[in-house]
Every structure is written in C-alpha cells, then in structure tokens.
Write a structure and sequence with these properties.
The structure holds two protein chains of two kinds. Helix content of chain A is about 50%, strand content about 15%. Chain A has helices at about 25-35, 40-45, 85-90, 95-115, 130-135, 140-150, 160-175, 215-225, 230-245, 245-250, 265-270, 285-295, 300-310, 310-330, 345-355, 360-375, 380-395, 400, 405-420, 430-440, 450-460, 470-475, 480-495, 530-540, 540-545, and strands at about 45-55, 60-65, 70-80, 125-130, 155, 185-190, 195-200, 205-210, 255-260, 280-285, 335-340, 510-515, 515-520, 550-555. Chain A has 25 helices and 14 strands. By secondary structure, chain B is an alpha/beta fold. In chain B, helix 1 runs parallel beside helix 3 (about 75-110). The longest helix of chain B has about 35 residues, at about 75-110. Classes of the chains: A alpha/beta, B alpha/beta. The interface of A and B includes residues 67, 75, 112, 114 and 270 of A.
C-alpha cells in the first residue's frame, strides 16, 4: 500500500488507534473520556457528567449535562471547605482528620451524583491539584479515598491545569477584540501555585507555574505571628519576589492585558457589583480592585467570615489571593484587569465532551511554546522548523505503519524544533544537553509524561539508539518506549534530510514499497549524496522500529 | 414628635395592639356569632403564646440582669410593666365581651353554658355518670403538704385547686390540686330539650369534688391555669443529637418558670396565697378572671355542629384557571409560571405536583423544606411514597419550629424510616423558607420544577391563611433553588445566587438595596414607590431605610397585619408612609414586596417578615416573580389590600390604630373581593372549557 505525505493526520484519532501505542499514555493529559472519539450515543441523548476537584482549600464538584454536541449545561456547583493544602504546605502530609473530612465530603458528593444517575466512570472525572500532588502520603490518600468512596482520583499537574485552562478560556480570549494583537497574561492564583500563561495575540508564548499560592502565603504570615498591616507588607514582598521573573517573559513595548482567574477574583467581582458570566470577560480598573483589596486586608479573618458568610478556609486565603493578583497587575503595569465567571471545573466538564483535546489549535500552541524555547536557546530556527516539517511529512506518510495520532505527531514536531537546543551548552554530547534542558523547561500543554517523551525523542535524534540499559528509557512503559523509538527514528531521518542545514530538500513524497520507505525529493535539490550518507548512519533506528529501510530518490526530471 | 421620643414603637405593645384588633372582630356585630367566639378564642390563644415566649423572654432578661433597652428605648422591666397594664385591660375586655355580649347571644342562639347550680336533675344525673365513668377514673387529686415538693403542673391546662378544712388549729386549711393534664374533656355536653347545653368540666368537678375527698370538708374549689416560659432553645452548635435535645426541650418546657397565673376571681385568699407559694408568682403575673379560665378553649365550642348559620358561609377554594386538571403539573409549569393566592385558590396544584413527582418515573429527586405541617399531611405522604419509589428525597424538617416540635420529631422519624434523607434544619438557624424542588429527567435534559411559598406546607391552614404559591419551571430560579438547597443542607458552601436571595446571607442587603434604589430615584426627582405586605415589621435597620426613603419622597404603602414598629405620618420622618392592617375571616399571611424601580417594576414573594430574627437568625427566601402575568396578579393583590376600607385599620403615629375615617363612596372589603373575583374567574374558565368539544375519532 502506498501512502503519500499529504494524508490528513486528523483521521488518526486516539481512539481509532486503540490497539496501537497512541491509545495509552494520554490518559492523564486529557482524561479517559476526552481521548476517545465522539460517542454517537452521547451526542444524541442528554446525559449527566461531573467533575470533582480536590483543591488546596476546598473540594468542589460541578455536575453538568450534555444535550448532545460539545456544550455542557452546568446543573449544580458544590463547594465544601477542606484544608488539604494547609496540611501539605505545613507538614508535607495530609493528616488523618483532614482525610476523613475529605472522604466524608466525597461520600456526600457520591450521593449527589446518584441523584442524577451519574454512575458512568467515563462521565466522571475526579482530579486533585497541588495539595494532594505534593503531599508525601499522596498514594496513601488516593488509596484511602478509593477504598472509602470508589473514586479513582487523578493527580493533575501544572501543565495539565494550564492546558485545560487554556482550552477553556480560549473562546473568551478570541471573543475579545482588544486581545487580538495584545500580549495577554492569564493567571490563576491557586492555594499552592499560580499558573501563568503568556499569549501573543492568540498564540501561547510561555506557560509557567510559580510557587506562589494564597494558602502558602497565609501559612507563611501565620507562622510569622505579625500584625495585619505588617502581614500585608510581608506578603507583598514575597509575591513580588516570586513573580519578578514574569516580566522577562512579557515582550516589551506592547500593551499588556491581564486576565485574572479563580474563585477569589469572582468573589471580588461580586463585591464590586459586577455581574460575571462565563461567556465573556469583564474589565475592572486596577485602582478600584486595589481599594477593595486594601479594604479586605484591613479586616480580620473572623470579620470576613462573618460579613461575607464564608468558611474559614476561604476567608483565610482571600486577601493573599487578591493581593497576588493585584501585584501581578501592578508588575505588568496594567490599568485594568479582566475577570470572568469561568472556572477549572467548567473547563474540565467541557473537556470531557471533546472527542479530541489535541485540536489543531491546541497542537499549534504546543508548537509555539517549543519554538519560543528553541529561540531562547538560540537554535537555528530555519533548520529546526525545516526538520520539524520534514518529520511531520514522514510521520504522516508512515501513518499506516505506526497508526499514531495527532498527539504523537505534535510530540515529534516539538522534539524536532528543540532537538538542537543542547548546542547552547556545548557541541559535545549536545543531544544529552537537549534532553535535560527540555526536561527542566516549561512547555505549554504537555503533561509530565509527554514532556518526558519530547525530551527523549530529542535526545535520541543522534548517536546511541534507545536501549534498555538507558535508565530513563527503561523506566517508561512499553507503549511509551515504542513511541520514543519510532518518533526518534522518524526524527533521525528528517535530520538527515537537512543535514546540510540549507533546507535544500524541501518537497518530498513518501511511499512504502515492500520493506522500504522511498523518499522522493521533488524539488530541484541537486546532488543528494550528503543526505544519503547521513541516512546510512541515521536510518538504522527507523529500520529497527518500522522494519523499513530508507531509500532517497530524486524525482525524475 | 419630641426629640426624646423614640422613632420606633415598642414591638410588644405593637403586638398587643394587633391582638386588640383581633379582639375588635370578636365584638363586631357584623361578624357571625360563632366567628366572633372564634376570634375571642384566638386572642386568648395568642396571649398564651405571647406570655410563653415574649413575656418569658423579658422575664428571663430581667432574671439575668439584662437591662438593655429595646429600640423604642424601654428596659425589659418597663416593658413588662407596660405589658401587664395593657394586658389587664385587654383581659377585662375579653371577659366583658364573652360574658356580656357573646354568652347572652349564644344563649339566644341555643348554645348555653350551665353553671352547677343551674343544672336540672336529669342533667345532674348525667354529670354524675360522666364523673364516675370518665373524670374520676382519669384525674388524680394531689394533696399538697409541702409546696416545694409538689409535682409540676403542665402549662396551658386547667387545674382545680381545692381548699379543705384542716384537722388541727395549727393547720386551718389543707390544699389539694386536681390537674387536668392531658385530659382534654373541657366541656361536658348536657342532655337538653333543644339547642346545645354544656357545663365546664371544672364546674362539674366543683359539684362532685367531695367524691375525691371522702371524709374531708371542702371549703372551696377554684379553677386556675398556668402559663410557663417557653423561650428557650437548644444549643445546636456542638453537633450533639438535635433530635434528642429537642425532646429534652419538650420536657423542660413542662417545668419552666411560670409567666402568668389565671385564676377565677372567686378565689379565696388562702387558695391564692397557696397558689402564689406553689407557683412562685407575684401579684403582677396573676390575672383574676370573672369567667372560665383559658378562653382559648372556646375554640372547640365555635365549631359545635348544628349552628352553621352562625358561621361564615363555607368557602371552597377555587381552581386556578391557569391550571388544566387534566394536564400534568409538569406540563403546566413548563408552559408558564403559576401564581396561586390561597385560600381563594386551593393548594391542590402544589400537592398534585408533589404527588405526581412521587409517582413519576422520570423524577429523580425531590428537595423540600418542612416547617409546620398538618397531621396526616399529604405532603409527607407524598415524600414517603417518593422515597419508597426510589427517588432521592431530601427534606429539611425544622425541629425548632416552636410548639410544633413534637409533631416534627414524629415526621422526621417517619421520613427517615422510609429512606428520606432528613436534615434537622440548619445549625444555629431556623429554616423558615418554604420551597420544594423536583428534579426530573426529560428528553432535553434535567428540568427543575420549583414551588416557592409564603405559607407552610399545610393543607389545613392553607384554607384560612392567605398565602402565595409560585410554581415555576424557570431554569435560573431552579439553579438558584438547587444552590440554595445545597447550601442549607450543608452539601456546599454558600454560593452566589442569580435571582433569589436568602437570609441570613444577602436578603437584608438586597432589601436595603431595593429601598435605596427607590430613595435615590426620588432624590433625583423621579418616581419612587414601595408597597410591602408583611405580617410584621420590627427591624430597626429596615424601618430606618424606609424613613430615609420617605424623607426622599418615596411613596410607601405598608400593609402589615401584626407588629409594626414604624411610626407613619411623622412630619420630617415618615410623612410619605401609610400603614394599614387587615384582620378578617382569613389570616393575612402573604408576604409580597413591590418596588417601582423606575417603571421596571420588581415584585417578590418572601417567607421572611422584616424582623431581626427573620433577617438574621432564620433561613428565609426572597423570590422574584418574573412572569409578567403573575407579576400583574401580585400587584393587583397588593392594590386590593390597600383599597380595603372595611376590615382595614390605619396605624397612627402614636402606635394606635383607627378605622378609616369618613364615609367612603364605596366600601371595599378585600377578602370578599378576592372571593368573588376568584370564583368568577373559575366559573368563566369552566364556561370556556364547556364549549370545547373534543371528538373521539377512530385511529386510521
């Protein structure tokens, strides 16, 4: 069977490749329900679905209903204060009492789910953020919850939160004309961390978590046993120090817009008399927000609880959260900030309905993020982009062989863009430098596993092939090992095709003939000897993993 | 008004004025005779509760040394003295009305009370038989040797004190008490040639009391009645078993201190001294009455059969023309909101919603509040049936609903036994809101059907309390109702609502905001108008906001049935405020709020009166009426009430009430107008339906 490089990759949905490696490894990034194709039953009939989030100061649940299509109608939103973060960020361990409270809340949520007959595991996603993720006894916590409630909690990392957040707010950002050309900073101050996305127009240029959390700040102040005014000053100093590097990520000389997400901001909007909705962004003057923050900062936690009918866990972290947002706005020099009614659970609910979270736009954002990292390490971007494009064509040409999906294609392209960033450190063994630079950098949209795969694919673009004796490689599961080997094999061929760095091999057509991948160069590239020589060295991994030799041909004239 | 004079009326005295207005109905000759008797019994029953709760509360404050003044500037002691003075006059009026006006008229009508001395021989024989068979077997006299060791007497039941001659010079008299306890034979029906004759049980006892004390010389028998403090609540803050605690409260209520002693004015000095010592009451709390103690028991007499001509003509609630009885309530509510005005319209649609919800296989959940409900309540039956049919049923049973605790404990247990998830109210607050939410799975998704009301889920009281029911399938209201219910049941923290407001969270603020909007408009020269119909207005903050609104030029009409601590018509303070109160056949209980809002009129119904306890210590609801047709109806109800010049009384700036002056061109009696209006609407709907023929055609 012959396949050309123009085969659309979107046909390879993750679910369609259920027997191949692409069917696994993505579960933590997009959730079990979102990685499959559109379920025809779901699109026709209304059904309930729910998301539970174990956050730093509360356990929240959103129950929604799909009426077909991709829209979710939120039926109920529940919040119960449980200070998981307080334990984790002070002792590192979630205490037994807190865990019991957590189980009690989850049991009550289970009853609520029963009201809506929401039993299908595919329609339920239970996630935990930094408070559980960073607890040293997290496995014990997850097991206890599972035994007591039957809920399998999924730990989601910062990248996943950024990804979900981006997918959720993307329509809002696109609907606001003033953001089209602006630099937009989107931040959500959580209890433990603050997720920041920097966008240029609609493209993500940075995704960065900061160890700045309202609960962490509150704990820090509480430990210092200081007066309220002094506490604000201490927190301000801490916030400013933590977010200082953010200014370097924001391109100079352009207007900056700041979108502040989170429940605390929604509450602030309420106090400012703003009626938020989920489908739009509302602007508030920073000066007005500052006045409100100062007013709240002058109140005791007890007073806040009483006045605004809040639970302690919420009241304690309100001022630290608002102060963090205020300082970010001030750092960015914004006169106004944007607030929305959107929240993480809404986005997770929407995500459960998406047949494929790896939309072309989302993949493009990952690629943008990789380009920005490559630029940071002074990679020859012309070469990198060309290799990435060749790799993409090869990947698509080999579709019938590897049956991988758009996720794997994106991982390959990202690796191709960054495969030479190790040169920033030095020439010798630069592929290994590339590996650790990628591993220690922030990349938008990739969860921990995908991030690791990208780093490894880049690492194996030259020299030694993946081996069981390579510790990091050996730690991967089988499917991930296959992904790395196959994609590294493709990347090696793409690198060989632009060995000269001149991008002279531009247009290629690929066909599979018996045991060979025949790459025909259709543009006038001149003599291909150098590329052939390089291929002889680099194509062995392709041969090992696909069982295909590589033959480079010039198109007949 | 002098500078030192308070701008608020004292709430206790205002309440007593309300009771006086009820008493006025008891002596209004235009009111049917047995209805007059019923009004009299209501005033007595109201006073019982007043002494149990309000006087109990003030006496507790005095005992604990709390001398803080109320908003009208009176200390607890000053209030107690003023209450005592005002109540004495009221009690005198009550007995004058009963003995001088009602009893002679009742006698003429054929309902006659016989004293012991007036009985015929046949009647004496009959009483003797009843005494032997029913009274002597049940009642047990207790001889009193040491008053400090005497068993405690139930509150609000009749007792007979017996004075006997002593057996030595050192003990001139001996005393015994015959407590009626739970024995509820208050009257003995006598055989008579015609009409209805009866004797009070205490009179029958006095006739045959020596049977209880053979060999003793009886000097006197005197009936008396005790009212005890009931102003205490359970501490539900420590997470203890509330159900068990509430049962303790019921026990405690039996032996709490005495707030009032009613005793026949035939009492002898020794018996009075004995009772004072036994019950530890002072002169201020003793009421010597010239007739039967416990006039509230006359209520039973007002429904004696065979005298219907002395009652209001019976009223059968109308069917709402907005509801097709052949259509399911779900279909009706999906088509449009329905506003019902009880008792002019029946509560059946509400009960039908619950009953259909219990049986409907697509209903997945029912959430409901229960504050007070009837015995054998169909609402409770529906909830039990729903749970048995596998629905998720959650009910907030307010165990702390005063005087209904025992019944609510019983419901709570029954419901739990049937699989209903029962929540015993909210910690530290009473759940007074009335709401029911039905969640139903439909082809287009989950749909919420809500009922919001101003009255309790009680089909009995719905026949004589005026209340509003709003039935709606509006999804935004449904979302709010669900979020509210989740918060109240502890499933979730309190969240922001879109349309409704709830006490003690944001209801007060919302009301103040609505008043302030009118104030601002009036200040800017625009029209500002507020019409409020409530049972009670006593909250100083809300009253002050209304004063401000009045000063700014807002036109304010208040239709407040009961307590009103606002002083209307005071120059420079409340010139633009008019307060009326309607007391008529049905108890005015609907709470409707209207704000002109620059022409974009806002109308709400609410479970909350404007009193500190409702706005700060109760879970209450404020629900907007969104449907234009329902809104117009609610406004119409308000306007009709304000137009009343027959059963309405006008509050003056000194806290007293007066009849509308002058002879009106046309008299308006709102409750009669509502009756005829709703009956006409029902009949026209019937006429319309009658002219519709639906042919039954063979299926092709």
């Amino acid at each position: 069977m012959a396949t050309t490089g123009s085969v659309p990759t979107t046909s390879a949905s993750p679910g369609a490749a259920s027997t191949g490696p692409s069917s696994t490894g993505s579960s933590s990034s997009s959730g079990s329900s979102s990685s499959g194709p559109v379920d025809p039953v779901r699109t026709q009939k209304a059904f309930p679905l729910a998301v539970i989030e174990l956050g730093t100061s509360a356990i929240r649940m959103a129950i929604g209903e799909s009426r077909g299509g991709a829209s979710v109608r939120v039926l109920e939103q529940l919040v119960r204060g449980v200070s998981l973060g307080k334990d984790t960020f002070t002792t590192g361990v979630i205490e037994r009492k807190t865990l019991q409270e957590c189980v009690r809340v989850l049991r009550s949520y289970r009853r609520k789910l029963a009201e809506y007959d929401c039993h299908d595991p595919a329609h339920l996603r239970i996630v935990a953020t930094s408070a559980v993720r960073e607890a040293t006894n997290r496995l014990e916590v997850l097991d206890r919850i599972y035994i007591a409630t039957g809920f399998a909690v999924e730990l989601i990392d910062d990248a996943e939160i950024s990804r979900v957040t981006y997918l959720g707010i993307r329509p809002l950002l696109q609907s606001d004309a003033e953001l089209t050309d602006a630099t937009t900073v989107v931040a959500e101050v959580g209890g433990g961390n603050t997720e920041v996305l920097v966008l240029k127009g609609r493209d993500i240029i940075h995704s960065q978590p900061y160890r700045l959390g309202s609960l962490r700040l509150q704990q820090m102040v509480m430990q210092s046993q200081t007066s309220r005014s002094r506490a604000v000053s201490i927190m301000t100093g801490q916030i400013d120090r933590t977010i200082e590097p953010l200014i370097d990520l924001v391109p100079r000389g352009r207007p900056v817009e700041f979108v502040a997400l989170g429940g605390d901001m929604r509450f602030a909007a309420k106090l400012l008399g703003i009626d938020l909705n989920q489908s739009g962004l509302t602007r508030i003057p920073v000066a007005e927000f500052e006045k409100l923050t100062n007013r709240l900062a002058s109140l005791t936690v007890d007073r806040i609880m009483h006045k605004y009918h809040m639970e302690l866990s919420q009241a304690e972290t309100l001022v630290p959260a608002l102060l963090s947002n205020l300082r970010i706005a001030r750092l960015l020099g914004c006169q106004q900030m944007l607030i929305t009614g959107f929240n993480l659970r809404d986005a997770l609910l929407q995500g459960m309905l998406r047949s494929n979270d790896w939309s072309s736009d989302f993949c493009e954002q990952i690629v943008n993020s990789a380009v920005e990292l490559a630029r940071k390490y002074q990679v020859d971007l012309l070469h990198a982009r060309h290799v990435a494009e060749l790799a993409r064509r090869l990947f698509r040409a080999l579709q019938s062989e590897h049956r991988m999906d758009i996720r794997c294609e994106t991982l390959l392209v990202a690796s191709a863009l960054m495969h030479e960033i190790g040169l920033f450190v030095g020439l010798s063994g630069y592929h290994k430098h590339s590996h650790y630079l990628i591993m220690n950098s922030e990349l938008f949209g990739l969860n921990a596993l995908d991030h690791q795969l990208v780093a490894m694919i880049a690492r194996y673009h030259r020299r030694a092939s993946p081996k069981p004796t390579h510790e990091a490689f050996a730690r991967l599961d089988r499917d991930s090992r296959v992904i790395v080997s196959r994609l590294a094999g493709i990347l090696r061929v793409a690198v060989a095709l632009d060995h000269t760095g001149s991008q002279r091999v531009r247009d290629i057509e690929c066909t599979i003939e018996k045991n060979r991948l025949v790459v025909t160069v259709t543009n006038m590239a001149g003599d291909l000897s150098l590329e052939r020589m390089e291929l002889r060295q680099r194509a062995s991994l392709m041969e090992d993993t696909f069982g295909l030799g590589v033959l480079l041909r010039e198109a007949p004239r | 008004m002098s500078e030192t004079e308070s701008i608020f009326v004292n709430r206790e005295l205002s309440w007593l004025e309300f009771n006086q207005r009820v008493l006025d109905e008891a002596c209004d000759p235009s009111v049917p005779l047995l209805e007059q008797l019923r009004f009299l019994a209501i005033t007595a029953s109201n006073l019982d509760e007043f002494f149990m709760v309000r006087v109990g509360s003030l006496l507790t404050a005095i005992r604990s040394g709390d001398m803080s003044n109320d908003p009208s500037g009176m200390s607890p002691l000053e209030q107690i003295n003023a209450i005592s003075q005002r109540t004495r006059k009221m009690v005198t009026d009550q007995y004058r009305i009963y003995l001088d006006e009602l009893e002679p008229h009742l006698s003429e009508a054929g309902i006659r009370r016989r004293r012991a001395a007036e009985l015929s021989e046949r009647q004496i024989d009959f009483v003797d038989t009843v005494f032997q068979e029913q009274i002597q077997a049940v009642l047990t006299p207790i001889a009193v040797h040491d008053p400090t060791r005497f068993p405690l007497l139930f509150g609000r039941t009749v007792n007979v004190a017996v004075q006997m001659k002593g057996r030595s010079d050192t003990e001139p008299f001996r005393f015994a008490v015959i407590p009626f306890g739970r024995f509820d034979l208050r009257y003995i029906t006598l055989p008579s040639a015609g009409g209805y004759e009866f004797i009070l049980t205490e009179d029958a006892i006095s006739l045959l009391v020596d049977r209880f004390f053979p060999g003793e010389e009886i000097v006197a028998t005197v009936p008396f009645r005790v009212t005890r403090n009931a102003d205490f609540s359970v501490s539900d803050d420590d997470g203890a078993d509330l159900l068990a605690e509430m049962e303790d409260v019921l026990d405690y209520r039996k032996d709490s201190f005495c707030t009032r002693l009613e005793v026949s004015d035939q009492v002898t000095r020794p018996i009075l001294e004995f009772l004072k010592s036994l019950l530890r009451v002072g002169e201020r709390d003793i009421y010597q009455v010239p007739g039967p103690v416990g006039l509230s028991d006359l209520m039973q007499l007002s429904s004696v059969s065979g005298f219907d001509q002395h009652l209001y003509p019976s009223w059968t609630p109308c069917e709402s023309p907005k509801i097709d009885p052949s259509e399911s309530m779900f279909d009706t509510m999906k088509a449009h909101d329905v506003l019902l005005f009880h008792p002019y319209e029946g509560i059946d649609p509400v009960l039908r919603l619950m009953s259909e919800a219990a049986e409907d296989r697509d209903v997945v959940a029912i959430k409901q509040t229960l504050y007070r409900t009837s015995r054998n309540s169909p609402v409770v039956r529906s909830l039990i049936r729903a749970a048995e049919n596998g629905k998720n049923v959650t009910v907030i049973v307010e165990l702390k609903a005063r005087f209904d605790e025992a019944r609510n404990i019983e419901w709570a247990r029954q419901l739990e036994y049937s699989g209903v998830q029962v929540i015993y109210g909210v910690r530290g607050l009473k759940t007074h809101a009335k709401a029911c939410i039905v969640v139903r799975r439909e082809p287009q998704g989950f749909q919420r059907y809500c009922h919001f009301g101003t009255g309790n889920y009680n089909e009995i009281t719905s026949r004589f309390y005026t209340d509003i029911s709003l039935l709606t399938a509006n999804q935004e209201l449904g979302n709010d109702a669900i979020a509210w219910f989740n918060a109240v049941t502890g499933c979730s923290q309190i969240q922001q609502f879109s349309l409704i407001e709830s006490a003690p969270i944001g209801l007060r603020e919302k009301l103040l905001e609505m008043i302030n909007v009118e104030t601002e408009r009036a200040r800017n020269g625009d029209k500002g108008q507020i019409i409020i119909k409530l049972n009670s207005l006593a909250d100083p903050v809300m009253i002050s906001a209304l004063y401000d609104a009045s000063k700014a030029g807002v036109e304010i009409d208040l239709n407040i049935r009961g307590i009103c601590c606002l002083k209307p018509g005071v120059p420079g303070l409340s010139e633009n405020i008019r307060v009326t109160s309607i007391i008529d056949r049905f108890l005015e209980h609907a709470r409707i709020l209207y704000f002109h809002h620059g022409g974009d009129e806002r109308v709400f119904i609410s479970s909350a009166d404007w009193m500190p306890r409702n706005l700060d210590r109760r879970v209450e609801l404020l629900v907007p009426i969104l449907d234009e047709s329902c809104k117009r109806r609610a406004i119409n109800i308000l306007k009709t009430c304000l137009r009343d010049n027959t059963k309405s009384r006008i509050l003056t700036s000194d806290g007293s009430y007066k009849q509308p002056s002058g002879s009106p061109v046309r008299s308006h009696r709102s409750q009669l107008e509502f009756q005829s209006r709703y009956r006409e609407a029902e009949q026209s709907a019937v006429e319309r339906n009658r002219t519709t023929f639906v042919p039954l055609e063979p299926t092709s």
